[in-house]
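Researcher: I need the complex structure. Ligand is zinc ion. Inputs:
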Amino acid sequence: MQIIEDKVYAFSKDNPPCYTAQPGEVLQFNTLDCFSGRLTDETVTMKDMDFSYNITNPAAGPVYVEGAEVGDVLVVDIYDIQVADEGTIATDDHCGPLFEGTDYRTKKIKIEGGMADFNGVRFPINPMIGVIGVAPAGDPVNCGTPGSHGGNMDNTAITTGATLYFPVAVEGALFGCGDMHAAMGDGEISVSGAEVAGYATVTLTALPDLHLVDPLIENGTHLGIIASAESLDAAADRAVHEMVDLLHDRTGIDEAELVMLLSLVADVQVCQMVDPQKTVRFMVPKCALESLGFKL
Ligand code: CA
Ligand code: ZN
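Model: Output:
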């Protein structure tokens, strides 16, 4: 299995690929935590980090996918996510939108037997990938910012077993991922989850006949659009509109009928509300899609 360990700090069409993958080839992306491992113990806080050079949210990659053309969709199947046995959560003095005046603090979170331990509070882990995406057509986007190319979406649904679909904006797609979390709540209100090193095992394949504006996610039960914008409201608007357009285009069902059905069964869910753009997913149950005769 091919191991991908090179790191980038931006999704960019100008990043030289570190590997060229054949469609469907199994790849393992090894990543540091979002602090690049610099918060070595609880006495080291984000205040001690030197942000004058690239240090946060490294993504492993980029991988050039053979056959991926502009206008295609890159299909990313996530087979496995493994995380290290210790995570790190940190705050700063302007922690997210909610807590002006929080102080700088770092906590280590022990991970054992599928459980995390924060100050003696134990809860099941939910390993997920925070940063995942492809190169945008225009200017580079730093790995801390989400957008139509993916990036720092911090979506708790990006787990083992999920499939992601990204609009390909440059030849070869230039895929990368990193910023794994052992656990995180929707919203990620302190600006970090249980940030953790780890690896993800994925395959990458280009699909020509699906046209997307923003990333799509599919798992065993749901299909969702993931959209990022300046506010949660604007992100939700994007996600809902794009899902209605996708379902309308593929089934021909009247929009008002579709909107009523989605209002009954689909969920607007917050991914994160703390990054430079906020991210929302709009998740539709697949059983409803099957009833509509919808296929990707
Ligand atoms: Ca993140
Ligand atoms: Zn993170």
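Model: Summary of the prediction. Helices lie at 232-251, 255-265, 286-291.
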